[in-house]
Structures are given as C-alpha cells and as structure tokens.
C-alpha cells in the first residue's frame, strides 16, 4: 500500500465560479487524469473517486478501502449524454425516470456497452450502475473534469460510511491523493439503486427515492429485489456494512429500559435511539440521539453513520441501536441498520 500526503481542497458551493476554485478544479482534474483517487462530496455520502475507465485508479480504490473485488462500483456522471460512451438506456421509461430524479440520490443499473469502463469497476459484470449526484460541488467536479468517476463510499470497507470530509480523513488519510472539504451530505445514506436490466424494474438497494416515488412516475409496478446476493449486481447486497468495532445489537423500544437495567455494571454500554428514549437510559450509559421523533426516518438516516462513528471512537463495550418501525418510509434506514447489526436483535419476548 502506497502512502501519500493527502491534500485537502476547501471548495464551497458559493464560490464555484471564483478564480481560486478554478485553480483547485484544475488540480483535481490533473490528479484524476493521472489515475489518482480523491474524496468527493455527494448529497448521499462522501465517495472515494477515481477514473472509472482506468484499471489502475480502480485498483487504488479497492486497495485503499480494503474492498472485495467482486463488489461493483457506481459510476458518477454529470450529464445523461455521457451514457452514450458506455451504457445502454433500455427504453423511454428509464429515460423518464432519469429526467425526473437526476441529479439526485438514485443509481440506475444499465446494460454495459463496449469496453470503455474498466472491467474491475463493474466486477466483470455486463451491467453498470450509474448516478448523477446533486451536491453542487461534486457535480461541478464531474462537469469540469468530464471524467466518469467510480466512487464507492470513502471509508474502510465494512465500516460506517462518511458524511463529512473529516470522516474520510479519519479512514483514508495517506491512502488517497486528496479530499474535498465541502458541505456535509444532505441525506446521509447511499443512493437508491434501481436495476433496469430486467422488467419490471427492481430496487436492488433502498434509499431516499422510494418505491412509491418511482411508481408515481411510471404506471408499471416497481419490484424489490429478493434474489441471491452471492453474485451482487449492486453495492451493498453481499457483505456486512456500516458497522462500528463494538458489537451492535438491535433493540425494541418496549424492552430498552428493562434491558439496560439488567446489564452488568462492569460493562460500558452505548445506546443510539430517538431523543424520546433518553429518559429511560441511565446516566452512566452513553446516549446518542438519532432524531427527535420515532417516525422521523429521514433525520435518523442523515445522522446514522455519524452516530455509529462517534460510538466507534468511544470506550463503550457494546452498543444497542433502536429498531424503528417497518414502513415504506423507513426501508432504507432499516436496511443500513440491519446490515450493521447482522440482524442481531433483542425482542420483547427475549427480555426475561
């Protein structure tokens, strides 16, 4: 593994047209052109970006993250016209969805065309996941460089994803050429992934754009992928993700007070839950609030990875995380929580 002195570029959305920003964009373009990798801000999470066409750049991404080679990467673009180089748009329905939700937190799995994209980027599949981020700085970098950028989350593989440039520095300092310091992610969890290589289209990974959002645009029903994850078509389908170093256990709210009271005094406990549960958590327990109300799923999703990272740095021995109610609006949040816990859970009937 090579070690670099990681550069930090400070770029704000308000200064995108300034001469100083132009100099930074040119430096970023040069670095990416020569196969370097950088931390890129998006509205979902920070990405670790490299030229999707360059096998050496893609190998640096996998190496820096410690990411399994059979886990495909999402390619980021700034214009639908860029798809002409490497992907097929199956029909007008897909184009309609793109025009509705791009730029935004959704990726489309499309049939791969030609050999423009490095085989390592797509894990040797004949399909490619593509998205157009709405973060103004991330989108500007894509537009200025003109390079399709593969950009998985900029973290050590399996750990909580980064929503702030400081998270990227914590995980990958010395393993990337540079990172852009800009506004934190708006949504805090990765994009929805929609598989458009089969019909009806299938959600391969839930995110901010929900099944109901997609079905409002198309008359046809959208399916949810339930296939075997042994050969993933999308990031996030095969491996455990988003986990801190401590054991992380799901807990239902109705047994939280009882469970915490029964814990041994010599074990340091952390709890991640809505603010409304703070009153049942003993003072000696580390508590991090995800949101004010139990049904504020968007706020909880935005804060999830930051909370996991904070607990990861604490001295607690184990962590309980609140199990939110399953609804169409909580699907993406619960998907990330279940991946982090491995579905280990304390239920009401296990409390005695």
Written account of the structure:
The protein has 352 residues and is α/β, with parallel strands linked by helices. It has two domains: 7-224, DHBP synthase (Alpha-Beta Complex), CATH 3.90.870; 248-350, Rossmann fold, CATH 3.40.50. The chain is built from nine helices and 16 strands. The strands form two sheets. An eleven-stranded mixed β-sheet has the order 1-8-2-3-7-4-6-5-9-10-11, sandwiched between helices.
The helix fraction, in percent, is 25-40%
Structurally, the number of domains stands at: 2
Number of helices: 9
- Per the principal axes of the C-alpha atoms, what is the gross shape? globular
Mean pLDDT, to the nearest integer, reads: 91
Which CATH class of the largest domain applies here? Alpha Beta
Strand order of the largest sheet: 1-8-2-3-7-4-6-5-9-10-11
CATH architecture of the largest domain: Alpha-Beta Complex
Rg (CA only): 20 Å
Q: Could you spell the SSE succession in H and E letters?
A: EHEEHEHEEHEHEEEHEEHEEHEHE
Q: What's the β-strand tally?
A: 16
Q: Report the end-to-end length measured between terminal Cα atoms.
A: 49 Å
CATH level-4 homologous superfamily of the largest domain: DHBP synthase
Main structural class: alpha/beta
CATH fold naming of the largest domain: DHBP synthase
Which residues sit in consecutive blocks of at least 5 with pLDDT less than 50?
A: none
**Biggest sheet descriptor:** 11 strands, mixed
Binned strand content: 15-25%
Helix and strand layout, with pairings?
Elements: E1 7-10, H1 19-33, E2 38-40, E3 47-51, H2 55-65, E4 74-76, H3 92-101, E5 106-111, E6 127-131, H4 136-145, E7 149-150, H5 165-172, E8 178-181, E9 192-195, E10 202-205, H6 211-217, E11 223-224, E12 248-251, H7 256-262, E13 269-273, E14 286-289, H8 297-313, E15 318-322, H9 331-341, E16 345-346
Parallel strand pairs: 1-8, 2-8, 4-6, 5-9, 10-11, 12-15, 12-16, 13-14, 13-15
Antiparallel strand pairs: 2-3, 3-7, 4-7, 5-6, 9-10
């Amino acid at each position: 593994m090579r070690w670099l002195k990681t550069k930090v570029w400070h770029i704000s959305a308000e200064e995108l047209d300034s001469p100083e920003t132009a100099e930074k964009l040119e430096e970023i373009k040069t670095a990416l052109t020569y196969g370097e990798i950088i931390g890129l801000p998006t509205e979902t999470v920070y990405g670790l970006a490299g030229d999707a066409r360059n096998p050496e750049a893609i190998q640096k991404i996998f190496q820096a993250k410690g990411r399994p080679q059979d886990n495909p990467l999402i390619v980021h673009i700034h214009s639908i016209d860029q798809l002409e180089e490497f992907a097929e748009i199956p029909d007008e329905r897909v184009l309609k969805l793109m025009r509705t939700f791009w730029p935004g937190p959704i990726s489309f799995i499309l049939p791969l065309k030609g050999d423009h994209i490095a085989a390592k980027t797509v894990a040797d599949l004949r399909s490619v996941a593509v998205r157009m981020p709405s973060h103004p700085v991330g989108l500007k970098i894509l537009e200025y460089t003109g390079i399709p950028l593969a950009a998985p989350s900029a973290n050590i593989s399996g750990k909580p994803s980064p929503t702030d440039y400081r998270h990227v520095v914590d995980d990958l300092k010395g393993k990337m050429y540079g990172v852009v310091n800009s506004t934190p992610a708006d949504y805090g969890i990765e994009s929805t992934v929609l598989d458009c290589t089969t019909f009806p289209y299938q959600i391969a990974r839930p995110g901010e754009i929900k099944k109901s959002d997609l079905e409002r645009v198309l008359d046809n029903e959208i399916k949810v992928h339930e296939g075997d994850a042994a050969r993933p078509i999308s990031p996030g389908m095969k491996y455990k993700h988003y986990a801190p170093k401590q054991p992380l256990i799901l807990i239902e709210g109705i047994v939280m007070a009882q469970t915490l009271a029964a814990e041994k005094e010599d074990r340091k406990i952390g709890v991640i839950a809505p603010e409304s549960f703070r009153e049942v958590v003993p003072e000696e327990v580390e508590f991090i609030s995800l949101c004010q109300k139990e049904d504020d799923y968007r706020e909880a999703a935005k804060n999830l990875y930051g909370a996991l990272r904070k607990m990861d740095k604490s001295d607690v021995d184990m962590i309980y995380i609140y199990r939110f109610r399953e609804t169409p609006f909580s699907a993406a949040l619960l998907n990330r929580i279940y991946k982090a816990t491995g579905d280990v859970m304390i239920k009401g009937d296990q409390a005695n």
